[in-house]
Structures are given as structure tokens and as C-alpha cells.
Amino acid sequence: MRTSSSSSPAHCCFLGKMKKTNIVIFNPDQFRADALGHLGNAASRTPVMDALARTDAVSFRNAFCQNPVCTPSRCSFMSGWYPHVRGHRTMHHMMRPGEPVLLRTLKENGWFVWWGGKNDLVPGQNPLDAYCDVRQSLKGANVARDPHGFDAWRGEPGNPRYYSFYAGVEPGDANGDSPNSDRLHVLGACDFIRNHKSGQPFCVYLPLGSPHPPYYCEQKWLDKIGRVKLPPRIPAPDFALKPSILKGIFERQNLQGLSESDWDDIRQTYLAMCARSDHHLGMVLDAFRDAGAYDDTAVFVISDHGDFTGDYGLVEKTQNTFEDCLTNTPFIVKPPRRFPVKPRVSEALVENIDMCATIEAMTGIAPMFLPFSLNSLLGLINANHSQFLAVSLAISSRIVMGSMDLPFSIAFTIIIRLIKDAPVCSAINSPCSASKSSIIFTNSLLAVTYVVSQHQPDVEQMPSASLPRSTTREGQTRADPEPTIRGL
Questions:
Q1: Lowest mean pLDDT, pick from 137-146, 304-313, 430-439
Q2: For the chain, how far is it from start to end, CA to CA, in angstroms?
Q3: Which domains does the chain have, with CATH numbers?
Q4: What distance in Å separates the CA atoms of residue 28 and residue 187, rounded to the nearest whole number?
Q5: The whole model's pTM is what?
Q6: How confident is the model at residue 446 (pLDDT cuts 50, 70, 90)?
Q7: Which burial class, exposed, middle or buried, applies to 435 when counting CB atoms under 10 A from its CB (0-12, 13-18, 19+)?
Q8: Burial code of 9-41, b = ≥16 C-beta within 10 A, e = fewer?
Q9: Which of 118, 120, 115, 117 is nearest to 133 (CA)?
Q10: Cβ atoms of 308 and 315 closer than 8 Å
């Protein structure tokens, strides 16, 4: 169900006048969570993301995507909708005009949106003017040859590496860097950040190609990976207990002839590509520091999905199979400095779909549509809920008294977030008192009753959907010391 126009000043910000926040969505494709050094991979080299989790951000160990291929996952975390809500289940079902896309929501609410990188979100034949102010083009640039565009690296059909996606060492310049599309998009983003002088808040969206296969990287990054420290691969399973597609791919990729050294070549190269992506993030953050904008910037590091990289005797990824190596992805959030943060690795169970609600909570933007994820992660990022709950108490009280005139869907969204944040406050032992949490929770329940009694949503206009399904770690039980909040 769509809300009133997001451009309406009365509904643009439900927390009053908030300082505008710059946003970075750094979106490397096919990045496994266990490729991060701070999540325990001794062979990897990700110093930038590791430092963020130590000093300025929260890295969620148990973050999961909604689909293990690019388009359904992007459609999900860019809309706040699960893939089943409107049929965004495959690479061929992208976001349609009129459907909620975070980039468009930001643009309509006054953010300048700069987009550099791949698409996989909206149909290529459709204009992108509604979603961004600038879509960086590399036309005419001296771009390194993309291994997707040729397949000599496969060798002759029938050789053991033919379907391995291993392309070897990427040539570099005098500094060891290839002028590939990722590097050129990152350099373009850095130029934009350093030269943006208008004062208008902006969003930099960087959906980059690496570490998506083919596995292909410069020697300087390969040399940084501790090959002897590579963790063991997950062996091929009893495929009778797995979706049949996995057995079919296992048989047709026919990688059983690879030696363990061959597999280590693939895994070292994949981690090298991750290291290069980490360096690219560092370039972007340095640009914000140079521009004096780092403190006012929210940073989101998120990936569409992971990669087999040798686990189960497979490479790449598959449609609709949900092994942890495909669905457990990096999710790192650095809020603007005005939001207190307890930097750490969080054990809480979260989903990529939570990004929309978190950005809306940081910016005060009301969603275009009633989202299926109302789970802002501010309650887990922010160790001090006092200020947020004081505002929450005022909002819920005004809704109960009928003095805040909001569309049904916006009011309902706010109320549900308040209900969810009140118990979180007590659960993580924040400075606010349990009694204040109880008041907010009670007030919010009263507000739900009031809003629902005053507004009857048009059920026929709401997309049909089954209840959101929680994701669990495969074959793992964990005592979660932090609140795990899923659904309603």
C-alpha cells in the first residue's frame, strides 16, 4: 500500500527537522561473510572493514540475504520487500516503475544520488532518471578487458578447470593495479565526493563487480593472502539431502579432477578480490575524510550474496539454494556521528532487507510503501537509547491523542518501530529505564488501536504475501547474547 507523496513536507520526516545525512551504499557482489578478517578468516586481508568494526561501526556476523543471486537480492534490500512479495524471484524480474526503490525515495526527498557500477536492479531499457542524478558511464575510458567478455582462460573443453571460473592473474600497471571497471567507478566516486560543494545531501551507490567470478585478480592482492592459512573446504555432501539442482551442477561442472592445490588457487584469488574490494572501500572513506564529510556520513557495506568458492565441490552460486556460504554476507553499518554507536561484531540475527528501514530511521524519511521489514537496526547499533526513546515517547503520545495527522501506513510503520525498540532498550541494558520502555510500549499499543480504528486500509491494493520467514544458521545452534528481532 502506497503512502501519500513522499515529497510532502508534512510527511517527509517523522522525527522533525533532522540534519541531512550523506549515505554510502558500498555493494561488492558475491562477497562471503567468512571472507572478512574480523569474522575469523586468518587467510584474508580486509583491514578497512576490520578497522570499521573496531572503531566506528557494527559488523553483523549473522547477516543473511533474501536470495542467493543478484537481482532478487538487490530488489529485496533496495525495496524492503521479500522477493516473493511482487515476484522478484529471478534475474529476469527487476523492479518495475512505481515499485519502491530506496534510491528513488532518497532522490525524491532531496538527496543527490550518484550511481557508479553495475545494475541488476531495474530493466536496462528503462530510463534511470527516477533513481539517480548521475549514472557514471565508462564509455570512452581505457577499461581493462573484462574476463566475462572472453573465455580463453577456460582452456580446452574437457580439462578439469574448464568450469572452475578460475581466470588466473590479472595484469596490472606499474603500481600493480588494473584499470578495471571497479577501480574506475571508485575513482569516479572519490572525485564526486571531494568536489561536491552544493551542500545538498547525497547518496553514493557503488554496486561493484568483485569478488564475483571469474576468479581473476592482480598479483599485488594475491601476495597479501595467507595461502597456508586457508580454512578447510566444506566437502561434497550427501546430495540426496540437498536440492537436486546442487547434484546436477556438481555433476556438470565436473570439478572432481581438481587437486587441492587447484582449489587453493581459486580460493586465494577469491580472497584477493575481496582484499581489493576492501581497499576500494578505504579509498571512498578517505575521500569523505578529505572532504570533511566523514562524520556526517552513514556507511553501509552489504553484498548481494556469497559464493561457493570450493565448498561442496562447487564454484559460483545457484538459484534458490540457501547454504550459508551463499546467504551469509557482510553487513557493516557506520552511522553518522550524531547517532551513538558501540563498535563491535554483533551476534544478532539480521537480514539485508533491514537496510531500508535503517536508512529511513537515520534520515527521517517515511517509506513510499508499507514495507515488509520494519526492522531498523538502530536499536542494535546504538548502545544509548535515551534520546531516541524520548522522541519515541512524544510521537506515540501525539498519535494516541490524535494530534499527529499522518497517513495510515506511515503512522503504523512508526508505531511498530516504537513497539520493537522499547523492549530492545531494556534487553541490551541501555541507560534508559525499564519503566520508560514500558510506557512507550503501552503507548504504542494504544496508538495501534487508535490508528487502526480510524483508518481502514484498502486490502485489495496491498500486495499478497506470506509471512516473512526467518533465516537460521545451517547446522548451528548459538546462544545469542543480543536480542534477535524478526518480523512482528
A1: 430-439
A2: 18
A3: 20-363 (3.40.720.10), 384-461 (no CATH)
A4: 15
A5: 0.79
A6: low
A7: exposed
A8: eebbebeeeeebbbbbbbbbbbbbbbbbbbbeb
A9: 115
A10: yes
